[in-house]
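Q&A log
Question type: sequence-to-structure
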Amino acid sequence: MTRTLITGGLVLTAADELHADVLVDGAHVAGLAAHGSHGWSADRVIDATGKYVIPGGVDAHTHMEMPFGGTLASDTFETGTRAAAWGGTTTIVDFAIQPRGGSLKEGLDAWHAKAEGKCAIDYGFHMIMSDVNESSLKEMDRLVSLGVTSFKLFTAYPGVFLSDDGQILRAMQRAAAGGGLVMTHAENGLAIDVLAEQALARGERDPRYHGEVRKALLEAEATHRVIRLSQVAGAPLYVVHVSAREALAELVRARDDGLPVFGETCPQYLFLSTDNLAEPDFEGAKYVCSTPLRPAEHQAALWQGLRTNDLQVVSTDHCPFCFKGQKELGRGDFTKIPNGLPGVENRMDLLHQAVVDGRIGLRRWIEIACATPARMFGLYPRKGTIAPGSDADIVLYDPHGEQTVSAATHHMNVDYSAYEGRRVTGRVETVLSRGVPVIEDRVYVGHPGQGTYLPRGVCQYAN
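Response status: OK
Response body:
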């Protein structure tokens, strides 16, 4: 059991900014004390002078090796978790998928097989319910007992993931009774498919039309609908990847009414826009994701939602597909472009840039990227903070380091960056996962299998 002393840094949590030393004993934080006030001894001393000492990021929305549109997301659990560590994230919660006609446990077992022994950081699973029936509803309680306490349902992707309102209501009722949290992808997929068919018939085939048919009003309509279904069920609700101000307005209204409704947005909606989708020569395909990028004027509402806590979490929805050979499947037909963006490596840096730019404060950065996702998905205070007894998932972050985001230097297994050429201030220097270095002075020293599976508790906001 190695004792590590991190000395001289500014410790940031969602609650505090402390000039403190941090003692790590084995896998856990043993104590915090003012610089030089403690007399602690350690096997290893890390000088954090001039650095932030922050909790490892918790990215509660990733899709490693996800099948979509006849291909697979290009990051494996090995490459994706390594890239996450490079970006200061030490925990991911990925999505296992129930096979059509199969059981929830069958889907969970398949994702365990993909991830076991491969991850550089700790990981947990949500469960995508793609076949809601009496059998899968009964299974929900079993999954909660296995530490899979959140269930994702879709109002989009007819014939693949879509559940009808009755199925969603039944799942919400079961989750409410068993301690689970329902997450929803809220877009009116049936209406979107009509608009997509009509667009193609008019000869509108370029990537920008992906955004035009997936209208903000159809995100807002579905968001309103799932909120009301959750209200009828008496169940808490978490709406993933909120992109449109109209959808956010539905969350604000529900929260103002006191409903246990929560929202997540993603860096792509805060930093990118339909201008990217309209890039010429099919370059816009790089930015095809769902929910889609919106016109830039939606960004101000999302930032305000983060400041007012009407949006609680920033996750990535990391689901990368290479431009060559994967995004190109949709040349001539935007509906065949695999939906997803790379971003697991960029989230913490982009949000720190938002601190530098005055959009959010330092503690809010940690709150939306570390602490709240850990609380939302039953991992706090083991994850998401630096406190005695917490896992020693700790990042030394240089707030003055400058970098240019680029596919040439990132570690994600994808041939482009959604943020190519963007200058950001702030950089990860060292990353500990349960006290063991994964990144050390900007050198990767981790290995596949260093990360372990995390059975999760229930949502800490649900009651």
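Response note: The chain has a mean pLDDT of 97.
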